[in-house]
Amino acid sequence: MIRAVMVINTQGKPRLAKFYDVQSLEKQQELIRNIYGVLCSRAENVSNFMEVESFFGPDTRLVYKHYATLYFVFIFDSSENELAMLDLIQVFVETLEKCFRNVCELDIVFNYSKMHAILDEIVFGGQVLETSSAEVMRAVEEISKLETASNSISLVPKSVSSWRSR
Amino acid sequence: MAGSSIMDTLFQRTLEDLIKGLRLQLIGESAFISKVMDEIRREIKSTDPHTKATALQKLSYLSSLYFYDMSFSAFHVVELMSSTRFAHKRIAYHAASHSFNESTPVLVLITNQLRKDLTSANVLEVSLALDCLARIATIDLARDLNPEIFTLLSSSKVFVRKKAIGVILRVFEKYPDAARVCFKRLVENLESSDPQIVSAAVGVFCELAPKDPKSYLPLAPEFYRILVDSKNNWVLIKVLKIFAKLAPLEPRLAKRVIEPICDHMRRTGAKSLVFECIRTVVTSFTDYESAVKLAVVKIREFLVEDDPNLKYLALHALSIVAPNHLWAVLENKEVVIKFLSDLDPNIKLESLHLVMAMVSENNVAEISRVLLNYSLKSDPEFCNEILGSILSTCCRNVYEIIIDFDWYVSLIGEMSRIPHCQKGDEIEKQLIDIGLRVKDVRPELVQVGRGLLIDPALLGNPFLHKILSAAAWVSGEYVEFSRNPLELMEALLQPRTGLLPPLIRAVYIQSAFKVLVFCIHSYFSETEIKASIPCPGNVVPLESELASEMECPEASESEIHNASPIRKQEENFNPRVSNQSFKDLSEDYGEQIDTSCGQTSSLASLERNVFTDESIINTLNKIELAVGPLSETHEVEILERARNLLCFIELIRQYLPNGLIQKEESLKMGEIEAYKIVELMQDAISDELGPVSVTAQERVPLPADLVLLENLADLEAVLPDIQPHLNSLSLGSPFLEETPGVPLPTHQNIEELEPTKESTSLLTEHRRRHGLYYLPSEKNDVSNDYPPANDLKSQDDAEDLVKLTEQSLVSKKKPNHAKPRPVVVKLDEGDLVPTAAKPQSKDDSLSDAVREVLFGNESNLSSSKNKPSDRSSSKNKGKEKLNVDTSELKEDLGIDKHHHTNSSSRKSKHHSHGKERRHRSSSDVGDQRDKNGEEGKKKSSHHHSRHKARPRTAAPSSVTPQTQVIPDFLL
């Protein structure tokens, strides 16, 4: 299963972090820092694997991909295929691309909620449930439609009613 | 109140404002965040759900990316979960799955809300609840919500059904009994026509299978069908992973699936699938030569790709093949060695492992040389990787591949001088170990040690201190092989030794002591005494007399209070030496003296000039100068040894000629007196040390009447002022010795105490009384006479080691080695750390549950405690069409099942399994049930008789039942 998904920028700031097994906040911070420390020392055009057993314990692997100012990092165990995980990063990024058109770091910074929606459609509790970015997009669009709907319905009556109740 | 609420709503910072503020950083990040946190704490208490939701969203954001604690918001999360607005609900669920864990107290409050959302008509709400559950489900939640999840497993909407399948994993993990209800449906989902559903279900099985592969063997036909039919690479990869776990359990299954796997490997264009096929073949199908060959061909294709990922993975796959099929590595030798200089650290490391896998006794010298040279040029990290892997490869299985130890020792010496070398610990261990085990290499070892000790530059490098410690110890212990002991002495006393840590410095001083004793001893034997007493004739009786007086060489005061690890080893070892019969001992000593006399005389030509009166006096002065100040030091270890050394000098000096004038009248009794002292010391030190078995301690038989108290508190009452580890029987406290009921500390302590005996009479007394604490003498063979390393006869009780050595025996007699391999001392079984008997993978409750569903047996009475859901489970099972008549069969089998409960659960599993299989086919056919039942009964009686026969063999071989039962696999 997938143990964690992270998006870290080249300055070492986490832009998205999701751990599928319980880790304390301090541990999360430390893991991200450690991983970034190794990532930023790696040259371009080398393999996309990194030794993380010292951070995450036995039977853990890490693949990452470097896009512009961001590292996309997946940490997983032996029940996933390394190359398939690289493909999955590709799927994730493609979906972001479709969602934001020419996705850049800023999109990711300002769309915290949407980022999670997308990731949750692809990876569910550590398991890959969806690999088609079209399917993911459809679900994410439905979610945001429902969200805006519920908000717009609520907004007017709520403010009016609370105004009245004064 | 309402006012503040509306103000909050109108002027509340949204998440976007927060992010913008963080980016502007007008007042610094942490100051800004703490301000925002204050706002959040206020806003989250708001009665307005919108305000609350926004606050919670901001909080989740800060917690997730800035690691601020949000546990205080748990109750508000629960409140917001029940919001009717989807947006709020989503924020709340997100916060819950991010921040809740097992110990969150409010978790008990959300069960009903989750249930409500799981049964909601809105798929997105269901999805939220499932997602949350997949992250935070506890045993209670899993149990209580099991029925809802069960319903969702057959939902018509793929979107929720796949998530319901996903959540199963967490539910099973937390609440294994859920399998009794849900497992059938999970299996049905494998047969779904929707690829997404199949993918999700296979994913779950891929997670479950490694934990207990046996239980999932009956599902092999389903997996096989997917393997053959599926076009989805994701699914195929997962199925391959499952088969990698199942195939080793059932040979015929392996035979069956290997063809489709090879087909996939040949046909597919997807690299990930090819790699998974390769990995599956090289991990679990190593017996299928043709498949492995195909995999190696594919590996080679990967190796020449441009993509470093493929190269890395190919190397990784090769290293999996290597132990069974070394030819695969050798075929690709050139490429692998080329990768040593790759830019990519991963690839370098993998190829290093492979190179080390290729090492054999014929090429170890060559490869090590190449690698060592290469390590000089590489970066520090990789350099140490290289050194580490050379060291670990060479010492594998007691230096199995080393023929020429002189070469190896000098290689280690060279290694120590590599600037980046940080392998001090390992080198130290090996230097000492080789010294103990390989007699023939000691001269070279001393030579290497000298080279290291004499170089003052090395003292400045803290990474080398451990190595220097070993070098000092070796030089002291085997000083008789030194070409120039006085030079060694100077090296040991050089001023820069002040840079060493105290423990290592203590080793230096101890070694200096040994060197000094050796020097004076040789000096005496060379000069006066030798002239007056003919050496061999006289020394031996003296020796044996000494030996009978004090068998325990370490009883000399120099050895007391030693705490350094090396010394410890010695002490552990000690009892064996001492337990030998006196005759043996004196014989041994005789031999030893003979050899050492031989050595001295062979070195005599060298030494005659070295040990003049002048040089000895000079040395003594030098020592006093260097060590004198240390007798004031605060470091106990150093202090103790320095004092020993100084006292010894003082003792000797009065008998030594003070100059040439006195020398004329020197042949007097004092000389002989001094000679005796030195002889004694020499004796104490020169006794040979051997490697210590790691199991030595365990071999001490536990005396029947030994009662060890958990708590030694009452001991303190007896001896208030003595520390428990010091109070010893041998310190001669008659009070203790005569009280039979007094708890003895431990064996370890007794052994340690033993050398501290000063008086020999007390010692013999002690031994007589406590003889049972010494190792039985028949196990003494290790101590003084070295059994030949590969002598099969001497290893009667270690068959497995024999097997290992047999391999080396075959290949060892290579004529092209100039030198014969020296004898390497091996202990019977003590070299290998005893592998703790692997804990039997205990049938955990999930496996039980799964088996129960799959095999329909009830062998596991333990886990079917009357949980409330059990009723529903049986109800549900009744509905399952496949199970319709398993219950009947269960009754058939029930009679004998009850006799064999947990212990025979595995066996009975197989039987019922056969039944189940038979059954399926029968239900397919339709009307032949009765006939089949008959057959089943016959079978069962057959098995029954087998059962009765079985208990005689303690470990039931699982093969026999399998061969009987599984023939209809995959048919």
Distinctive features:
heterodimer, A: 166 residues, alpha+beta, two-stranded antiparallel sheet, B: 971 residues, mainly alpha, 50 helices, extended, disordered C terminus, AP_complex_ssu (chain A), cytoplasmic vesicle (chain A)
Summarize the structure.
Chain A has 166 residues and is an alpha+beta fold. Chain A has helices at 25-39, 53-56, 82-100, 105-110, 112-122, 133-165; strands spanning 2-9, 14-19, 49-50, 61-67, 70-76, 123-124, 127-128. In chain B, helix 9 (139-152) runs antiparallel to helix 10 (158-174).
Number of domains of chain A: 1
Helix content of chain B: 55-70%
CATH fold category name of chain A = Beta-Lactamase
What is the molecular shape of chain B? extended
The chain pair with the largest interface is: A-B, 62 and 68 residues
What is the H-and-E element order of chain A? EEHEHEEHHHEEH
Main beta sheet strand tally, sense and closure of chain B: none
Straight-line distance between termini of chain B: 75 Å
What is the CATH class designation of chain A?
Alpha Beta
Mean pLDDT of chain A: 88
Helix content of chain A: 40-55%
Radius of gyration of chain B: 38 Å
| E-strand count of chain B | 0
Using the alpha-carbon principal axes, give the shape of chain A.
Answer: globular
The stretches of 5 or more residues of chain A where confidence is low (pLDDT under 50) are 156-161
